[in-house]
């Protein structure tokens, strides 16, 4: 049995990487950069401790890191077109109508002041203010696997107000490709629009409070008919409706006050999946809020089983979904937000998402896109291998594959 699984894994890797090469082929007019891109993706998936121009060049037999640097900084290819190809490939293999789109950002710690968008800013990666770049990402989570679909580099206002600095870092400041300031939630909205316009099958969107508290982002999703469960801060204002709130004053109030007023029987114990330390089991509650037209609108709360009275440990959410959506489903989607945090960790550890040494704006997108391709390859391959091990049609082509 063990030998059979090993053969299956090898076959899956070989077949899968041929698909990676097929994805890369139309994006490179010349064979040399095309081959270099394939080698770069292989290098990102290797066991190298640090995956940068020098180490990947050595691993692929290149005489110097110049060809790798040229791939990221000077070769003629468009990472956005490859991103679109990647998204379609992921959907072909992992797509699910009940999929969850997850928005979040992560930090890339940097030294100096030359890397595009770098400045001292808070990053959850370090848990404090550090000199860093911030990337905003869109992940896709389905029962088959989870990976990254899209990416945007956050550019602070201080950068975009300094045109000379932007020009030095390769940030377009003139012409049709001019980059203007956008907040992180606005960048997330652009990526969600792209995914939805491309027909990515997804029933839900989730994200942390930096995104959930932005009414424009929630409104965009409502306008597109997409359900969401988005975290919000404790001071989020809500207008409770119905009779779930025990307080007689049901005017606009803070969400933490509304949750504190919930009847004790409102809370239900629900598991939202396995975590690093075992099942993620919490108590969950919801209450209807206005507006009531269209789908159901709720406040949602999660509290600890071990200390439910500790208000500082309560997480708050706003949710919009079909009116008869069960509480368990809202909790499941809220729990899916952890998928992107785990994806950041595996992408950084396994495919060098944060190992790049490029400073210029185009180079960031090129490295990140190739790292996303490497992560998607690993995710798709593991999903196919798991299917084979369970006796499923793992070696059957996807119905939507070309």
Write the layout of secondary structure elements.
Blueprint: H1 2-24, H2 31-44, H3 53-59, H4 66-73, H5 79-94, E1 100-109, E2 119-123, E3 128-142, E4 145-154, H6 157-160, H7 163-168, H8 184-197, E5 204-207, H9 209-212, H10 215-223, E6 227-232, E7 237-238, E8 253-254, H11 255-260, E9 268-275, E10 278-288, E11 296-303, E12 315-321, H12 327-335, H13 338-351, H14 361-389
Parallel strand pairs: 1-5, 5-6
Antiparallel strand pairs: 1-3, 2-3, 3-4, 6-12, 7-8, 9-10, 10-11, 11-12
Q: What is the averaged pLDDT score? A: 88
What Rg do the Cα atoms give?
23 Å
What is the strand content?
15-25%
Low-confidence stretches are 1-5, 393-402
Helix content: 40-55%
Question: Helix/strand/pairing class, anyone?
Answer: alpha+beta
List SSEs in N-to-C order: HHHHHEEEEHHHEHHEEEHEEEEHHH
Number of helices: 14
Q: Alpha-carbon distance between the termini?
A: 32 Å
Principal-axes geometry comes out as globular
Secondary structure: number of strands: 12
The biggest beta sheet, please?
10 strands, mixed
Number of domains: 2
């Amino acid at each position: 049995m063990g030998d059979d699984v090993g053969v299956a894994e090898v076959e899956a890797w070989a077949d899968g990487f041929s698909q990676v090469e097929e994805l890369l082929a139309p994006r490179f007019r010349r064979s040399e950069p095309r081959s270099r891109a394939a080698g770069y993706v292989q290098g990102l998936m290797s066991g190298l401790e640090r995956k940068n121009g020098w180490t990947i060049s050595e691993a692929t037999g290149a005489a110097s890191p110049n060809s790798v640097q040229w791939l990221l900084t000077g070769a003629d290819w468009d990472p956005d077109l490859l991103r679109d190809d990647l998204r379609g490939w992921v959907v072909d293999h992992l797509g699910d109508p009940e999929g969850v789109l997850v928005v979040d950002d992560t930090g890339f710690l940097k030294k100096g002041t030359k890397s595009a968008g770098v400045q001292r800013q808070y990053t959850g990666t370090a848990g404090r203010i550090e000199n860093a770049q911030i990337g905003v990402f869109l992940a896709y989570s389905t029962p088959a696997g989870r990976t990254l679909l899209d990416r945007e580099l956050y550019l602070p206002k201080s950068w975009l107000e300094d045109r000379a600095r932007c020009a030095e870092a390769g940030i377009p400041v003139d012409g049709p490709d001019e980059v203007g300031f956008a907040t992180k939630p606005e960048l997330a909205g652009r990526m969600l629009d792209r995914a939805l316009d491309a027909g990515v099958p997804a029933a839900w969107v989730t994200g942390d409070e930096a995104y959930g508290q932005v009414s424009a982002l929630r409104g965009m999703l409502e306008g597109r008919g997409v359900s969401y469960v988005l975290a919000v801060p404790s001071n989020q204002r809500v207008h409770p409706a119905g009779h779930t709130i025990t307080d007689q004053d049901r005017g606009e109030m803070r969400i933490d006050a509304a949750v504190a007023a919930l009847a004790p029987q409102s809370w239900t114990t629900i598991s939202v999946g396995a975590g690093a330390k075992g099942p993620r089991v919490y108590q969950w509650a919801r209450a209807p809020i206005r507006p009531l037209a269209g789908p159901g609108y709720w406040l949602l709360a999660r509290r600890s089983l071990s200390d439910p009275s500790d208000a500082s440990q309560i997480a708050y959410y706003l949710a919009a979904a079909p009116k008869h959506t069960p509480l368990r489903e809202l909790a499941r989607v809220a729990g899916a937000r952890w998928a992107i945090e785990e994806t950041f960790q595996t992408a950084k550890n396994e495919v060098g998402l944060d190992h790049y040494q490029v400073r210029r704006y185009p180079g960031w997108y090129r490295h990140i896109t190739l790292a996303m391709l490497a992560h998607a390859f690993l995710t798709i391959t593991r999903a196919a291998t798991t299917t084979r091990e369970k006796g499923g049609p793992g070696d059957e082509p996807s119905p939507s594959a070309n």
